[in-house]
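Bit of a strange request maybe. I'm writing a small parser for structure token strings and I need a real example to test against, not something I typed by hand. Could someone generate the tokens for this chain?
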Amino acid sequence: MTALYRKYRPQDFDDVVGQEPVVRTLKNAIELGQVRQAYLFAGPRGTGKTSMARILAKALNCEHGPTTTPDTVCHACVSIANGSSLDVVEVDAASQRGIDDIREIRDRVVLQPAEGNYKAYILDEAHQLTDQAWNALLKLIEEPPPHLVFVFCTTDLAKVLATVRSRCQTFVFARPRLPDLVRVLRRVCEGEGLDAPDAALALIARGARGSFRDAVSTLDQLASATGNAVDVQSVLQLLGAVEEDALFRICDAIVERDTAGALVFIEELAEQGQDLGRLVNDLLEHLRHLMLVQHMGHVPDSLPVTDETRERLREQANQLPEPTVLRLCDLLAVAVDDMRQGGDPRLPLELALVKVTRPGADLSRESLAFR
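Reply from user aminoacidic:
Good idea to test on real output. This should exercise your parser:
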């Protein structure tokens, strides 16, 4: 059975979500006959770089092409989609990264396309090519045969040689916003007949941290585990994530200087099997959101939060003093350092809550400066 992230991979430009500038530029290039022969797609993993490269190959080799609307049903489009096209070659540069592999490619590119207009080479994880391999490609990238198109995909643009970047048209893929991720997940749910509330999909999207592939893979796993009825609790259990309401409750206890309430709540979360290390990281991210709201005066559109959460963030940002937010971030950083060294985050977390809810109990120099 095909994994959902492969089944619902974008098949044409209209299917692509969250990369509108890239789509617009490529479509304009095709319509104006200004397709370049070397592209560099850079961005975080799971943002659609390889999918976009395949769509570009379809647009160039479709029976009706070059076209911005490949029909996705002709022999060329179908063979590109299932990876059997003779004219579109995908290379895993993580395993085929040496100069001998590149020489083999260089010997083959002179051959004319078997059935389409172009011969496209898609090199995934291109930053892992050796310098010698890149140097072997330089002349070919600079003066390619008219039927050849290179698409280099990378998650680390800085590792690609400057001489290569200058010869390619570079597109930087942005991390999708939370509404974009939820929209894709909703489309998958409708296609597969899955029952999932928006709150559950928002949690999945938040846990994916900007990766379409991770979000859809998590939904696929949840569908199997829950019998196609995904709810918030099942998402929390699978991801080990902390419910947003828990983060707001902890900060509410800090606002009220309720030391006992904060410690009891941490005890409850621990008894429920909550990963306290994950709680520390999620709380730090929540505090970052509060800090941004306090200093920017509004909730930035880039934050991966729902409309309901935006309103709560505004309210809590007005209640929690700015120095307290900064102090708690510093204290939780100690817990993060302890975790990196294999320590238990519970005691540093509890100490941090005590120090910000009862500043008088902390006689350290930092606490005196905070007061």
